[in-house]
Design a protein that fits this description.
Number of strands: 2
Strand order of the largest sheet: 1-2
Shape: flat
Helix content: 55-70%
Main location: cytoplasm
Largest sheet: 2 strands, antiparallel
Biased composition (Polar residues): 1-20
Protein name: Radial spoke head 3
Keywords: Cell projection, Cilium, Coiled coil, Cytoplasm, Cytoskeleton, Flagellum, Phosphoprotein
Order of helices and strands: EEHHHH
Structural class: mainly alpha
Number of helices: 4
Strand content: under 5%
Coiled coil: 210-255
Length: 332
């Protein structure tokens, strides 16, 4: 029992230390139950996410264990006896208290809240986020210039005229440098101007040569274009002549074939047409269509007149015969 207690003490140097026996954190039950006792052995899976010593999120509200002195053994024994009595009362209550009857076949008992107000039960840990707004950082003021405090006594040294340097003598090297640098700079500028003039002259010559070359290139390109156009025109003309010759040769061949084909066709066609009566003699046709029908009509009319005359003659002869017969009979 003593080995499972947490120890908190301060060393002689005043540094706080903490040590405890490692143990697994118990699982959180689904429904609220009585808090487990510290000395009760419980099965857990050792998840450090439920350990209060592990810091999660911000550290503003971090729980800092207070620095306390060694606990009183008498108080510790009294708390241990109270825990034992509470555990015994809980066991007796569970053993002899009213129990829920066993469920019927096919049913099962479930935990139901019997409080006046229902409470949402979930495994989610309630947490609250708290924020605070701080003032913006002000610019740090400029650090004043450090001026050391004056110490000691002031001292001065008197320098007479001509003791440090002679201006006329000391100024000669400076003048030589200035004049030499000025002359050198002037010479450099003159040389630069001459070089620029030469460069401009070379650029002008190069520009004239380039313009002449461009003109020559344009002339050659124009000549090449004219030759190409002339060549294309000649090719088109030659193609047109060849097509014309080919068309003429095709027409001549077609005409010769047609003449050769019609040489035997025309006589046969004419003979067939003549046999069918499409070709005739106009005199013969006139005689056949004009004279012969008229002649036949005249002959027919003449024959009809002769027939009528003969009929009339026969009737006269019959009448005369009948009269003579009647006259002869009257005489008898």
């Amino acid at each position: 029992m003593a080995s499972s207690l947490q120890t908190q003490h301060e060393t002689q140097s005043g540094v706080y230390t903490f040590s405890s026996r490692p143990r697994a954190v118990p699982n959180r039950p689904k429904y609220r139950q009585d808090a487990p006792l510290l000395n009760e052995e419980q099965s857990s899976y050792g998840n450090i996410m439920y350990d209060r010593r592990v810091v999660r999120g911000n550290t503003y509200a971090q729980h800092i264990l207070p620095i306390t002195s060694q606990p009183d053994p008498v108080e510790f024994l009294r708390q241990q006896e109270a825990r034992k009595k509470a555990l015994s009362r809980k066991r007796l209550k569970e053993q002899f208290g009213p129990k829920t009857p066993e469920p019927l076949e096919g049913r099962m008992n479930i935990d139901v809240q019997t409080e006046m107000y229902l409470e949402e039960l979930s495994d989610h840990i309630e947490d609250v986020s708290v924020e605070c707004q701080t003032d913006m950082f002000l610019d740090k003021p400029a650090t004043p210039l450090f001026i050391p405090a004056k110490t000691g006594r002031d001292a001065a040294t008197q320098i007479e005229e001509g003791e440090l340097f002679d201006f006329d003598v000391e100024v000669q090297p400076v003048l030589q440098v200035l004049v030499g640098k000025t002359i050198e700079q002037a010479l450099l500028e003159v040389l630069e101007e001459e070089e620029l003039a030469n460069l401009r002259a070379q650029q002008q010559v190069f520009k004239e040569i380039r313009d002449a070359e461009l003109v020559e290139v344009q002339r050659l390109e124009e000549r090449e274009r004219r030759l190409r156009v002339e060549k294309e025109n000649r090719i088109k003309q030659q193609k047109a002549v060849l097509e014309k010759e080919k068309e003429t040769a095709d027409k001549i061949a077609a005409r010769a074939f047609a003449q050769q084909y019609l040489s035997d066709l025309l006589p046969s066609v004419y003979s067939n047409l003549k046999d069918c009566g499409y070709f005739y003699d106009p005199v013969q046709r006139d005689i056949e269509t004009g004279f012969l029908p008229w002649l036949m009509e005249e002959v027919t009319s003449t024959l009809e007149q002769r027939y009528v005359a003969r009929t009339v003659l026969d009737m006269l002869i019959q009448d005369v015969t009948n009269q003579r017969l009647e006259a002869f009979q009257m005489k008898e």
